[in-house]
């Protein structure tokens, strides 16, 4: 579980401060929960357990018996001062501790190492761990509430009340308490009103629950909440979900959302149930739409892995993108498109003699040298291994040949360094050029690449470290370089 907001009041070194703070937080939230209590000593919300479980998860160093004991003491002392003191208080508060300890330990044991991107998995875990914690603590709590001489037929309703409260408060609060982080105001994106649509959707659907009523109306905010999940960061979604869930519980408890009777609109239970089911049915659809969008994004991203990770020059797909988008803007009508295919000579020997890491260093330096020689106007890409391609627009074939020869010479003269070693390499180049008439630059490039490949082969066969091309009188130009 990510530890994004440190609870500044806790630190592994300050044990006394930790003890005092644990005591104070327990007392404060006990007071808060007690203030919200309704009938039968059960509360509508009992935030204390979720808050303390989150404190223990976010500060793993607090997970020691002494701090658990302090929590328990604070609860019992609060009871002693405000209501009653005795075995019933001891058992009921023990049930609180059961929830806190079980949920905290399970989350620490199974979720601590996962990063926050595993939200879906963590959310499931929070759900199940709260379920386990709520069942066990409610068993104890409802027994404690009943007392020895009570009517045991009351046990089930008491357990149901206790359980539903513990479980719902835990599931609603824990995600927010665990994911919350301070907003980074400096990095906030610009505000657009459209960003509020999902939140407005939640508000409108809660209002619809009040107006329409019935059991199904409780599901009305679900699609808008999923919309929030897609549009907002996790902590914000968790906060909105917490507020919406809390609001719904308050509305039902106060009969503002009536789930048993018809409301101002003439509705029956079936109407509400159908609406609720339809609302829920659309949620998987929303999720699937978002998953589809993510998949398309991933596909697009992998297609547009525009740069080679090792050398920083274009990858093959990046080069194609550039030939489609940027190169046509720079290529003037009548200019030549020159394509050079380059292959480092005997590169395998570098790997064999100095290791693969040295090979990587040489590839990186080679690519940098290539970019320098080609300049801003030309495109450089790594096709794979030690094979590179250069595409540039020139005013004549001679100019293309001169660039190729300049590259060849600069590589030959460069001292490549790896650790204490100084290495010299050479490169073989195949060159092809044409004036693209009706063809697109990309089509012309593909045709030239095949031709350049043939001349590269010729360069290799003729002894390497040379430029081969059919275009011009190479000796004349070489002499002029
Ligand atoms: N270090 C490193 N080596 C690579 C990389 N990609 C391919 N190679 C190596 O490049 C070498 C290419 O060897 P060959 O295709 O035999 O060519 P060569 O030794 O350059 O010989 P010629 O091309 O005939 O002059 C192989 O040893 C590959 O393992 C890489 O990313 N890093």
Automatic annotation (TrEMBL):
- Which terms does the record give in the GO molecular function aspect? diguanylate cyclase activity; GTP binding; lyase activity
Residue ranges spanning the membrane: these are 20-38, 91-111, 123-146, 166-184, 196-220, 232-259, 271-291
Q: What pathway is it annotated to?
A: Purine metabolism; 3',5'-cyclic di-GMP biosynthesis
- Record key words, sorted: GTP-binding, Lyase, Membrane, Nucleotide-binding, Transmembrane, Transmembrane helix
Q: Name one Pfam family in it.
A: GGDEF
> Which coenzymes or cofactors are required?
Mg(2+)
Recorded catalytic reaction(s): these are: 2 GTP = 3',3'-c-di-GMP + 2 diphosphate
Its EC number(s): 2.7.7.65
GO biological process per UniProt: cell adhesion involved in single-species biofilm formation; negative regulation of bacterial-type flagellum-dependent cell motility
Q: In the UniProt record, does the keyword Magnesium occur?
A: no
Q: Which InterPro entries match?
A: Diguanylate_Cyclase, GGDEF_dom, Nucleotide_cyclase, Rev_trsase/Diguanyl_cyclase
The residue ranges of the GGDEF domain are 335-472
Q: Which GO terms describe its cellular component?
A: plasma membrane
Please name the top-level EC class of this enzyme.
transferase
Q: What is this protein called?
A: diguanylate cyclase
Species, as recorded? Buttiauxella noackiae ATCC 51607
What phylogenetic lineage does the species belong to? Answer: Bacteria, Pseudomonadati, Pseudomonadota, Gammaproteobacteria, Enterobacterales
């Amino acid at each position: 579980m990510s530890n994004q907001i440190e609870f500044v009041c806790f630190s592994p070194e300050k044990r006394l401060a930790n003890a005092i703070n644990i005591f104070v937080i327990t007392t404060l939230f006990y007071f808060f929960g007690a203030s919200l209590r309704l009938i039968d000593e059960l509360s509508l919300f009992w935030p204390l357990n979720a808050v303390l479980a989150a404190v223990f998860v976010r500060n793993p160093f607090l997970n020691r018996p002494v701090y658990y004991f302090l929590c328990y003491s604070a609860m019992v002392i609060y009871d002693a001062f405000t209501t009653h003191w005795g075995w019933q208080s001891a058992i009921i508060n023990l049930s609180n501790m059961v929830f806190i300890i079980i949920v905290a330990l399970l989350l620490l044991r199974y979720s601590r190492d996962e990063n926050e991107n595993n939200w879906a998995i963590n959310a499931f875990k929070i759900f199940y761990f709260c379920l386990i914690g709520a069942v066990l603590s409610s068993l104890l709590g409802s027994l404690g509430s009943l007392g020895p001489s009570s009517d045991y037929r009351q046990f089930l309703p008491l357990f149901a009340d206790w359980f539903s409260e513990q479980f719902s408060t835990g599931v609603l609060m824990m995600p927010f308490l665990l994911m919350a982080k301070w907003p980074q105001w400096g990095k906030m994106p610009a505000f657009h009103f459209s960003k509020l649509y999902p939140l407005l959707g939640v508000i409108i659907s809660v209002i619809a629950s009040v107006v329409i009523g019935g059991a199904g109306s409780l599901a009305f905010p679900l699609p808008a909440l999923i919309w929030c999940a897609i549009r907002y960061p996790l902590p914000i979604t968790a906060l909105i979900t917490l507020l919406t869930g809390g609001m719904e519980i308050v509305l039902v408890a106060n009969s503002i959302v009536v789930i048993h009777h018809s409301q101002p609109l003439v509705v029956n239970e079936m109407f509400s149930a159908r609406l609720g089911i339809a609302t829920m049915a659309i949620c998987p659809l929303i999720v699937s739409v978002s998953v589809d969008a993510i998949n398309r994004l991933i596909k697009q991203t992998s297609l547009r892995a525009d740069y080679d990770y090792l050398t920083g020059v274009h990858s093959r797909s990046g080069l194609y993108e550039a030939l489609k988008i940027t190169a046509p803007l720079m290529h003037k009508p009548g200019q030549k498109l020159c394509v050079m295919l380059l292959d480092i000579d005997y590169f395998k020997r570098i790997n064999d003699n100095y290791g693969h890491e040295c090979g990587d260093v040489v590839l990186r330096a080679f690519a940098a040298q290539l970019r320098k020689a080609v300049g801003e106007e030309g495109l450089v890409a790594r096709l794979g291994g030690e094979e590179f391609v250069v595409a540039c627009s020139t005013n004549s074939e001679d100019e293309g040949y001169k660039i190729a020869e300049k590259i060849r010479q600069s590589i030959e003269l460069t001292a490549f360094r790896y650790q204490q070693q100084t290495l010299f390499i050479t490169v073989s180049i195949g060159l092809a050029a044409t004036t693209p008439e009706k063809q697109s630059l990309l089509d012309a490039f593909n045709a030239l690449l095949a031709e350049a490949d043939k001349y590269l082969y010729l360069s290799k066969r003729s002894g390497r470290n040379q430029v081969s091309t059919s275009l011009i009188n190479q000796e004349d130009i070489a002499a002029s370089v």
